[in-house]
Model the fold of this input.
Amino acid sequence: MTGIESQFRAARRVSTPLVAIQTADPQATMASCCTWMNGDTAILVWDIVRGTRALGAAGAAAWSEISGEVETVGPAGLIDTLIFLGKMPDRTALFVLNAHRILADDPAISQAVWNVRDPSKAQGRMVILLAPTIDLPAELDQDVLVMDEPLPDVQALSEIVRQSHQDAGLEPDGRLESAAEALTGLSAFAADQASAMSMTPDGVDLEMLWDKKRQMIDATPGLTIWRGAESYDRIGGAENIKGFLRRILAGKRAPRAIVFIDEIEKAMAGASGGGNDSSGVSQDYLGVMLEYMQDTQATGMIFVGPPGAAKSVMAKAAGNEAGIPTLKLDLGGLKAAGGGLVGGAERTIRAALKVVTAVGAGEVMFIATSNKITNLPPALRRRFSLGTYYFDLPDADERAAIWNVYEDTPGDHPDDDGWTGAEIEKCLDISDRMGCTLEMASEFIVPVSRVDPEGVQALQRQAHGRYISASHPGVYRMPDAQATAPATGRLLNK
Done:
């Protein structure tokens, strides 16, 4: 018995009158709920276009007995329907489609829903509000039991693929499990459509399934599937973190999806109540992220370092290295999609994380990058339990490895002391565009170590003895062999 089925049956058993189910496929959810309810239950369904309809034989019979009419179409307005619900038999259930729009637009409907709470409780009736996500008005917030229906898992998707093949008179080939995994993250209806379109005389077209999956995930606010071709073989230096990640990605409880959050400190600015976010959205994000990572036992790591030090490219390459999807979670985009308001922000991030859970089949690893980790709340940093890694300016050997990655034909290099990998790549790009030597191209490069030396040194001091080195085994040590601890002012020896 699934979690949502267990919750629904328990609510039905104790006569819970008001229930909201957040679902990506309301039609499939209604079908499941009808199965979970007793077969002789009278069921009604309301939507803003078709009004009220009886669903199933028991509902139609009760409707005809009360109205004296064979026609099973009733009141067009939801308020009239809620009043009419009181005339229906005990244990009647009423589904309300797209309830998030109705409740948000008309306070009278919120009142009408509240009015049926006590009578429905006494008679065992249930009003079931269906919506992709729902933000309950204050007057209903304590009275409606909210449930969250997860997207279908691999087992359910396998059955969808098998059924679509049988309906077409075809036998599914040996790639059934691969097809189901390619569909994770889609609703049952979307998976059925994609499966039907992917059938060919030679079997399942997996690439078509992945294209459909990418399109659907990209349509989720704040979430995209990263399509880059990065690999660790194409990243010079940072050997310590590469070795660690390769073992994690191939080890026990290996993740089935990577969630990449770039510059997480900006999205979480003000989450600790520092006054940078008066809207409360960052605090809300923090609460949702803490809850999600704890409830799902998701782990992760944080990459810290100056701009251009390979933090982002290392995170993006992780999925390609393991052959699993990398989902980019844009917390800033989620804020915009939520209208900059707390309720909207919570809905959008929960919807995105629901897709993350489905795509990763419950095994997800977060990788966040940051240029200033001190701005992150300690509680959130603890959730990234695989550690914090410092990406320093590459040393001479690492710079040589980076030149080797990008150069087709090795040549004389300019003075690159203090350069990052991004600056080496930029120099090669300028040289290619201008048709000039690398030495000449270097005249158009001002490395971050020169632009912001104080900022780079502050990062190094912060990381010294505290974070794991991305390049070498063990904790990070500053190149000059000592650093000043910000909290006490004393020296930390190498």
Remarks:
- The chain has three domains: 3-148, 154-219, 225-388.
